[in-house]
Write a structure and sequence with these properties.
This protein has about 160 residues and is of the alpha+beta class. It is about 45% helix and about 30% strand.
């Protein structure tokens, strides 16, 4: 089964009881289609970014559910039939969103490891400073080119 998130905006002109009935009615669609409702978020009245049907506010509702692809289609069909629903949007959640969370925790572990390495290198540098310096080893004598080769190169 796939995971979906459906957001819809309800007109603020409805009373609270009517709004609750509409939300329950839409939630029943998921149950009738053999889906599993994970979470219902009711944000309440919020200001809109731009006016819709000369309204500046709307009631925001989010459904998080699992089910077959026919559930979002049925919800969208019912949203279109209902005049009190101003806007709706359904998103299919994919497994990549869960992978991103795992990567973020991995990053934290990587930073901890990097900090530990930095501490270790700092400790080794301090140990090196405490130890007496060794005299530099004798460098091998430089090899001088033969005079014949130098005269050839100049010409």
């Amino acid at each position: 089964m796939r995971q979906y998130e459906t957001a819809f905006l309800i007109t603020p002109k409805l009373e609270e009881e009517e709004t609750e009935k509409l939300i329950e009615k839409m939630a029943e669609v998921v149950k009738k289609k053999k889906g599993k409702m994970v979470n219902i978020e009711k944000w309440g009245k919020r200001r809109l970014a731009y006016p819709i049907d000369k309204l500046d506010e709307a009631v925001y509702v989010f459904f998080h559910y699992e089910g077959d692809p026919d559930i979002p289609q049925e919800l969208q069909r019912r949203f279109r039939q209902t005049e009190t629903v101003l806007r709706y949007l359904t998103l299919k959640k994919d497994a990549q969103t869960q992978l991103r969370k795992k990567k973020k925790t991995g990053r934290i572990e990587k930073t901890k490891r990097a900090e530990e390495r930095a501490m270790e290198t700092a400790e080794t540098e301090e140990n090196r400073k405490k130890q007496p310096e060794k005299p530099p080893e004798a460098l091998p004598e430089a090899i001088e080119p033969e005079p014949e080769k130098l005269s050839e190169e100049k010409e």
